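Researcher: Let's do a round of design. I'm pasting the structure tokens now; please hold your answer until I've finished.
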């Protein structure tokens, strides 16, 4: 994608690289580095050349932007390992150079330049490349994507269309967040996050010729779902959610009229949190996730 050349990569902190390391040291070092991006992984060498890698990363609000180069390796990760080490996520991925083979759940594919991919990392996954592979990706919390595509999605991809107006706006938002993210207030970062997620999901779902109203609705839905994700343990009501997210109650109902109602989404989020707490041995605290009546 053309915007990659405009990215202020030098402003993204260098997390680490394998330059100058022996084969075993490089493999172990890269395994540790890559685990900070993908959760705990297993790494092994592919081909005769040693494992190599270089990672730059920057977090802005709920999103993490990664500029990663690696080669001659295969890495795998189990769903349980992702959930044990952090929040499930999707990777909005823009391959820049080289190619990689991947398996996301039961779906196989290739990651190639001039395409954009949305990869579910809340399932078992494996990646392999026997050459030099360069990619830019955005790590997005899974709950922000499930609201658009549901929980069964594994991998979505689309050819990059540089003439597409939605993709051009998406490019600008990404470049702005990477370059100026450290100057954003929390509210600004949340707004930009909603714009990025709304644009990316619309671009992957549709032809890319989006009415302004559709983009506004997508951004509002994303903002509301993020609010629920961060406040489900409180006594939420439709009026309270609408007020906190800057919309009317009638518009709130309209935004979610094509799927589960807003309070059903709150209930499902609480049940999922309770289930996860029980799995971690915190069953005695589950009542804390079930506050008072919902109006």
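Researcher: That's everything. Go ahead.
Model: Designed sequence:
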């Amino acid at each position: 994608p053309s915007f990659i050349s405009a990215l202020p990569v030098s402003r993204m902190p260098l997390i680490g690289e394998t330059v100058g390391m022996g084969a075993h040291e490089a493999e172990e070092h890269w395994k540790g580095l890559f685990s900070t991006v993908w959760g705990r992984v297993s790494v092994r060498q592919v081909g005769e050349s040693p494992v190599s890698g270089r990672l730059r990363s920057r977090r802005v609000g709920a999103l993490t932007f990664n500029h990663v180069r690696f080669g001659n390796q295969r890495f795998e990760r189990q769903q349980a390992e992702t959930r044990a080490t952090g929040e499930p996520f999707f990777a909005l991925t823009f391959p820049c150079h080289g190619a990689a083979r991947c398996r996301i759940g039961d779906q196989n594919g290739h990651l190639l330049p001039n395409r954009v991919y949305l990869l579910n990392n809340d399932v078992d996954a494996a990646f392999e490349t026997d050459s030099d592979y360069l990619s830019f990706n955005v790590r997005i919390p899974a709950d922000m994507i499930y609201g658009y595509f549901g929980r069964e999605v594994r991998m979505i991809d689309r050819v990059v269309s540089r003439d597409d107006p939605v993709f051009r706006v998406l490019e600008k938002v990404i470049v702005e967040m990477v370059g100026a993210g450290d100057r954003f207030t929390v509210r600004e970062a949340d707004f930009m996050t909603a714009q990025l997620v709304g644009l990316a999901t619309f671009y992957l779902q549709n032809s890319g010729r989006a009415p302004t109203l559709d983009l506004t609705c997508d951004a509002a839905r994303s903002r509301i779902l993020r609010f629920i994700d961060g406040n489900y343990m409180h006594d939420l009501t439709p009026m309270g959610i609408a007020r906190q997210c800057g919309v009317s109650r009638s518009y709130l109902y309209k935004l979610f009229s094509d799927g589960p109602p807003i309070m059903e989404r709150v209930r499902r989020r609480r049940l999922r949190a309770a289930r996860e707490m029980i799995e971690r041995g915190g069953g005695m605290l589950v009542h804390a996730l079930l506050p008072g009546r919902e109006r």
